[in-house]
Design brief:
This protein is α+β, with helices and mostly antiparallel strands. The chain has 21 helices and 28 strands. The protein has a six-stranded antiparallel sheet, sandwiched between helices. Strands 1-5-4-3-2 form a five-stranded antiparallel sheet. Strands 13-12-16-15-14 form a five-stranded antiparallel sheet. The radius of gyration is 56 Å and the shape is elongated. 27% of the residues are buried. Keywords: ATP-binding, Flavoprotein, FMN, Kinase, Nucleotide-binding, Phosphoprotein, Repeat, Transferase, Virulence. Its EC number is 2.7.13.3.
């Protein structure tokens, strides 16, 4: 049997018409015009393709031939395409077994000559073509992909009178499918199915058939071996039979058209081909609709981008010389939006001095097949406007090609640029005129990028010599070794500024004292540092001389106070002067000397009230038995106020040491001050358990506190004595007394 021709098939004896096993070779597949994916060994498919004219009569004739062990011939038809079947015949001969009786039958299948098409067949074909043309016309105008698929599903479903038609998309990453458009036959009680399902639910055998790419049809999901195991899944959605038309791109299944029917159904070749053609036309229309939507979206985004950027677009066909310009370009050249703009109109609107430049640039772009970037003036609307045209040569299908480009009004940009240029020029003039100041800029690495005439005059380096050098060139050797230039840049970057007062070096090596600062600079296209300083060498030398003179003066004043103290002691020697008066005089001279020392340290510019109080209390705190509480904000006093308040605090402290709280271990002294609304409020308050004696006469200390302080400082003062302490208040204007 292995040598039999491929067109032969083997049938079991007595099971010719209703055989349970029906094996066919590849030759039978070709005769039956089976799709590539179909297997002719499937009896259900074979029975669907073979049409017997009179099945009962044919069966009787075959059984009679089998009983006699004789050969027989059977005429039949094969279901075909184009709404018609083709004639064929089967010839069978007996194959004897070991006992000599016919055990098997050897059969051949062959097509007979084609018959002429009947009028009914021609009408059926014409009707199908009319249906497909009407469908194409209908979906062509729908535009939206979903609308196209829904209309096609409904139209096909009504045509086939089936239960449901669906377009499904597949998610290969998750191996699931769901309907993207669906029509359900409500007249048959069929519901739509909106869920997404796993591909595994339909069965691997069916999936493999679908993946082969042809139309897959199923007469009954219960008996078909591809769906038998998954029949329950289909039946729950009222699917007993159906068709699947897959859409495969680059070997990948991406979508499918499915046709469902609630009862078992034999799908004719005509119905199968109709479903396939509807699917192909629909997918073609959907892809075109998607492309058009994407194009519309792209064009909308382009229009929005051009509008936001203030751009108009234009193109010039070099073969026809036809200019196509947007409303923005027409407005730019002073052309009415409703008028067709020409190349000559564009040229006439240009400033006469700029026309040749435009022609040259466009001609060069055409000759070199390159881009162009043109800036010029346009005479439109009675005023001159600056415009910019940018574009390129585009080699389209015709031999001449075209120019495409965009344009915009840059009048404001030009004005802004000119204003910036003038501002920069004015700033440059200002900087160059500041000859007493060295003004320079450096990048983030400290490389000098600009150098004014003041820097050239002070440092001796010309602009050409300085630019490109590191700003270390004018630091002293000691500062370079210590990394001062880098530290200064880092401080400016970190804190926003870095003050600079130190000795710098000129080109000739001489040193000079400079004072200035460095600040970071950040801007459009700019990043680095700005450094400004001036030569203060003479001022520094004058300050050195002043400090020397002040130190000498302080030395001489202290010597003078020492001489006064010595003369006083010598003059009072041998007299009956009260020792307490002698101590009071020494204390006052020491308090005056302490105030002078404070002022000397600040070059007689002033002293803080806190330092004045500490210096005045120092002479008595070593023997005081009570604590002093100081409180108050920072107040800087001028020399005159510092001396007066220093003597006042000394008088109060000396009195507390002799008669008040400093004699009492439980005593307490509070010294506080506050500067508010231009007035310094000064308060001395002491408390003691000892009785405070009230003087019978006003002594030096009382007169100084109540009279001298207000007189010298222009304020008011009040001294109050009570049995348990002393309180002294002074109100002093800050103007003229505060440094």
């Amino acid at each position: 049997m292995d040598n039999l021709p491929s067109e032969l098939a083997l049938l079991n004896t007595g099971e010719v018409i209703q055989a349970s096993v029906f094996r066919l070779s590849a030759g039978w597949d070709a005769v039956l015009s089976l799709p590539e994916h179909a297997s002719a060994s499937d009896l259900a498919i074979i029975q669907g393709l073979l049409v017997l004219p009179d099945q009962a009569d044919a069966g009787g004739a075959v059984r009679a031939a089998v009983d006699r062990g004789q050969a027989f011939r059977l005429s039949l038809r094969i279901r075909g395409t184009e709404a018609r079947d083709s004639p064929a015949s089967v010839a069978a001969v007996p194959v004897p077994g070991p006992d000599g009786a016919a055990a098997e039958w050897l059969c051949t299948l062959s097509r007979d000559a084609e018959e002429e098409w009947s009028d009914q067949q021609v009408a059926g074909l014409a009707e199908r073509q009319s249906f497909l043309l009407a469908l194409s016309d209908a979906i062509r105008d729908l535009g939206a992909p979903h609308a196209i698929m829904h209309h096609a599903a409904r139209t096909l479903g009504l045509r086939l009178d089936c239960g449901r038609v669906r377009y499904v998309d597949l998610d290969r990453a998750r191996l699931t499918f769901a309907a993207s458009a669906e029509w359900a036959n409500a007249d048959r009680g069929i519901d739509a199915v909106a869920d997404r399902f796993s591909l595994n639910l339909v069965g691997q055998a069916l999936i493999q058939d679908i993946m082969r790419g042809g139309v897959v049809w199923i007469k009954d999901v219960v008996t078909d071996p591809r769906t038998r195991e998954s029949a329950d899944f289909f039946l729950q959605f009222q699917v007993s039979s159906g068709m699947v038309v897959p859409l495969i791109k680059d070997g990948v299944l991406i979508a499918a058209l499915t046709v469902h029917h609630p009862e078992p159904r034999h799908w004719s070749r005509h119905e199968i081909d109709l479903a396939r053609e509807v699917a192909e036309r629909t997918w073609s229309a959907v892809q075109q609709a998607k492309a058009e939507l994407e194009l519309q979206q792209t064009q909308a985004e382009l229009r929005l981008a051009l509008e936001v950027a203030g751009l108009g677009h234009w193109q010039l066909d070099l073969e026809t010389c036809q200019l196509d310009a947007s409303h923005e370009i027409k407005a730019l050249f002073g052309c009415d939006p409703g008028v067709a703009m020409s190349q000559q109109m564009m040229s006439d609107a240009l400033h006469p001095d700029d026309r040749d430049g435009f022609r040259t640039a466009l001609g060069q772009a055409i000759a070199e097949r390159s881009g162009f970037d043109i800036t010029g003036r346009c005479l439109a609307g009675g005023r001159i406007r600056w415009i910019s045209l940018k574009g390129r040569f585009d080699p389209v299908d015709n031999h001449a090609g075209r120019l495409v480009g965009v344009g915009r009004d840059i009048t404001c940009d030009r004005a802004s640029a000119e204003a910036r240029r003038l501002d920069a020029e004015r700033l440059r003039l200002i900087i160059d005129s500041a000859k007493d100041y060295a003004i320079l800029t450096a990048d983030d690495d400290g490389i000098i990028t600009s150098w004014n005439t003041g820097a050239e005059r002070i440092l001796g380096f010309s602009e050409e010599e300085a630019i490109g050098q590191h700003l270390r060139i004018f630091f002293s050797a000691e500062d370079k070794a210590a990394g001062r230039p880098e530290h200064e840049m880092e401080k400016a970057r970190r804190e926003g500024r870095a003050e600079d007062s130190r000795w710098h070096a000129r080109k000739d090596g001489s040193l000079f004292w400079a004072s200035g600062e460095m600040v970071p600079v950040q801007g459009e296209g700019i990043s680095g540092f700005l450094k400004i300083f001036r030569d203060l060498t003479e001022q520094r030398r004058a300050e050195d001389r002043t400090r020397l003179l002040i130190a000498e003066l302080n030395h001489r004043v202290k010597n003078t106070l020492g001489i006064v103290q010595s003369i006083t002691h010598q003059s009072l020697r041998g007299t009956e002067l009260d020792p307490a008066a002698r101590r009071a005089l020494d204390g006052r001279l020491q308090a005056l000397s302490a105030s002078h020392d404070l002022l000397t340290r600040s070059h007689w510019e002033g002293a803080s009230l806190a330092d004045v109080a500490q210096a005045a209390l120092a002479s008595v705190q070593s023997t005081a038995r009570a604590d002093v509480a100081l409180s108050g904000g920072p107040v800087s006093l001028r020399p005159k106020a510092a001396v007066s308040l220093g003597l006042a605090i000394h008088e109060l402290a000396a009195n507390a040491a002799s008669h008040g709280a400093f004699r009492d271990p439980a005593g307490r002294v509070e010294l506080s001050w506050a500067a508010t609304d231009g007035t310094l409020s000064f308060l001395w308050r002491e408390q003691t358990r000892l009785a405070v004696a009230r003087e019978q006469r006003r002594g030096f200390g009382t007169r100084f506190l109540e009279d001298a302080v207000p007189y010298e400082l222009g304020g008011s003062a009040r001294l109050a004595l009570s049995p348990d302490g002393v309180e002294y208040r002074a109100e002093i204007p800050l103007q003229g007394n505060a440094a």
